[in-house]
């Protein structure tokens, strides 16, 4: 199946009546673009319009693909865009360049239009990723038209870059000018922050790759989005570990902006209740958390953790009751029922969501998506057989959800494999023999037996050298296999 996109024409912006810029929903099969599709939500209106214009140029020139040249034409169509203004400062006449490009491309255009809508060219997909890199280099979350222009110039061999090179426009020179221009802009006020060690941004963990998407809890995630749309707080009812994993997937939904427009841009923060309660200034620190959450735009979502700790904090309950903050709490059905009886008015502001237990197949998918966490933490590799074994053995864990038991088993097996690699059995045997030799030599010295001492010393010297060689020799990264899982399960009585 080929990757296509199409955009409806004639839509109007509800704010000013201007043509509505294309959004991800205007591009059919957007999910098929993989990582490229995830960038659409970061595009400014002008950047998105450039892609809609590029698609129109591809149709006009009867091209089966949308290329970087079409994107350049799409940029030139909007003379209000910053990219076009920079080109004009460089001495480029947008209308003249557009006319020259159209005339040249028309000469090589097919005689008949393609039977299917145009598809992405690999060169254009690469341009999109380069534009994202340019935005990241400027520490900007939004991808603007000027980032697209820099992406077009990144590869001096592509036709769009060659058109601009006729005007002496090169990537490195324009990049220096853009960075200088951005540096001269007035600095913004310092954004509000949470107290150190009290809260961390789960949506940032998504950006760093620590949280990967898995198709679990679709029903629960839908209910969570609807609750946020209704302005309700959320109570996740079920196993603690599963609730944490569901919160991580909610962070992924927020970070990727796979949400209605009114929820886009919101971030999910985990509030460390244990660290907060341990602070001598916990009341002041909690007040700072509430103040920071109120100052952030759009309003963040705070995962407060266990219901028990925050329900006793009067000013936190007041902030929740007055909707000064938006919160998610983790508890079980029994504790939630007790809370609802004790504080019915506050409980009415929450949407309780019961967490379903993943199937064996879903649990395996989660392990596959996140095994890199354990590989990075323990500096080893994890085989597919180990994941399958973890699911199989976790099924025998009493009174624990399958995914929770499998994660705990895999983590314990990683620690076991790391220890085994650091001191394998052969090394431990050598160390034990060397320790015994040292004790025997001490006994010979005490009784004055110098006849047998040299032989023991020679043997100890050989063993010590073997140990030293072992410790200094490069060793391959250990690999966790099914055997490690089974050995660990036996230790844990699974």
Textual characterization of the structure:
The two termini are 45 Å apart. The chain has helices at 45-60, 68-76, 82-89, 94-108, 122-137, 145-154, 159-165, 171-183, 202-207, 218-229, 240-255, 273-278, 282-295, 307-310, 314-321, 333-342, 344-347, 360-378, 384-394, 402-422, 425-447, 453-472, 482-491, and strands spanning 65-66, 119-120, 199-201, 233-237, 268-271, 301-306, 326-331, 350-354, 381-382, 479-480. Helix 3 packs across helix 6, helix 19 packs parallel to helix 23 (482-491) and helix 20 packs across helix 23. It is extended. It is built from 23 helices and ten strands. The protein is of the alpha/beta class and 494 residues long. One of its GO terms (cellular component) is cytoplasm. Pfam families: AAA_lid_9 (PF17871), Clp_N (PF02861). This is ATP-dependent Clp protease ATP-binding subunit ClpC. Residues 40-184 form the Clp R domain.
Give the SSE map.
Blueprint: H1 45-60, E1 65-66, H2 68-76, H3 82-89, H4 94-108, E2 119-120, H5 122-137, H6 145-154, H7 159-165, H8 171-183, E3 199-201, H9 202-207, H10 218-229, E4 233-237, H11 240-255, E5 268-271, H12 273-278, H13 282-295, E6 301-306, H14 307-310, H15 314-321, E7 326-331, H16 333-342, H17 344-347, E8 350-354, H18 360-378, E9 381-382, H19 384-394, H20 402-422, H21 425-447, H22 453-472, E10 479-480, H23 482-491
Parallel strand pairs: 1-2, 4-7, 4-8, 5-6, 6-7, 9-10
Antiparallel strand pairs: 3-5
Protein name: ATP-dependent Clp protease ATP-binding subunit ClpC
GO cellular component, one term: cytoplasm
Domain Clp R: 40-184
């Amino acid at each position: 199946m080929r990757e296509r996109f199409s955009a409806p024409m004639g839509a109007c912006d509800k704010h000013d009546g201007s043509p509505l810029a294309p959004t991800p929903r205007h591009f059919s099969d957007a999910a098929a673009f993989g990582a490229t599709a995830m960038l659409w939500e970061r595009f400014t209106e002008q950047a998105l319009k450039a892609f809609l214009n590029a698609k129109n140029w591809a149709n006009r020139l009867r091209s089966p693909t949308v290329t970087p040249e079409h994107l350049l034409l799409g940029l030139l169509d909007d003379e209000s865009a910053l990219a076009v203004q920079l080109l004009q400062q460089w001495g480029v006449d947008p209308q003249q360049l557009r006319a020259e490009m159209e005339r040249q491309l028309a000469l090589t255009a097919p005689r008949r239009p393609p039977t299917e809508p145009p598809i992405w060219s690999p060169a254009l997909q690469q341009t999109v990723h380069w534009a994202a890199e340019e935005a990241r280099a400027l520490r900007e979350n939004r991808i603007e038209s000027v980032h697209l222009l820099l992406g077009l110039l990144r590869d001096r061999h592509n036709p769009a870059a060659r058109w601009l090179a006729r005007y002496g426009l090169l990537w490195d020179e324009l990049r220096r000018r853009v960075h200088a221009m951005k540096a001269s802009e007035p600095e913004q006020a310092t954004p509000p922050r949470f107290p150190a060690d009290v809260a961390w941004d789960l949506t940032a963990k998504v950006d760093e790759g620590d949280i990967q998407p898995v198709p679990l809890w679709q029903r629960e995630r839908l209910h969570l989005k609807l609750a946020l749309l209704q302005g309700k707080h959320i109570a996740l009812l079920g196993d603690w570990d599963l609730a944490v994993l569901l919160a991580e997937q909610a962070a992924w939904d927020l970070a990727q902006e796979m949400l209605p427009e009114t929820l886009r841009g919101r971030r999910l923060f985990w509030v460390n209740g244990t660290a907060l309660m341990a602070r001598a200034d916990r009341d002041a620190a909690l007040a700072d958390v509430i103040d920071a959450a109120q100052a952030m735009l759009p309003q963040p979502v705070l995962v407060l953790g266990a219901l028990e700790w925050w329900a006793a904090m009067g000013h936190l309950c007041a902030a929740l009751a007055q909707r000064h903050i938006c919160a998610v709490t983790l508890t079980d059905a029994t504790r939630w029922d007790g809370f609802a009886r004790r504080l019915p008015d506050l409980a009415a502001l929450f949407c309780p969501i019961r967490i379903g237990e993943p199937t064996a197949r879903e649990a395996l998918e989660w392990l596959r998506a996140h095994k890199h966490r354990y590989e990075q933490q323990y500096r080893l590799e994890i085989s597919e057989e180990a994941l399958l074994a973890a699911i199989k053995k976790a099924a025998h864990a009493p009174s624990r959800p399958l995914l929770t038991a499998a994660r705990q088993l895999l983590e314990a097996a990683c620690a076991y494999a790391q220890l085994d690699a650091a001191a394998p059995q052969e090394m431990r045997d050598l160390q034990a023999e060397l320790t015994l030799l040292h004790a025997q030599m001490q006994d010979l010295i005490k009784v004055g037996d110098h006849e047998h001492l040299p032989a023991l010393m020679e043997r100890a010297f050989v063993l010590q050298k073997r140990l030293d060689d072992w410790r200094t020799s490069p060793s391959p990264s250990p690999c966790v296999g099914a055997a490690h899982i089974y050995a660990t399960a036996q230790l844990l009585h699974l």
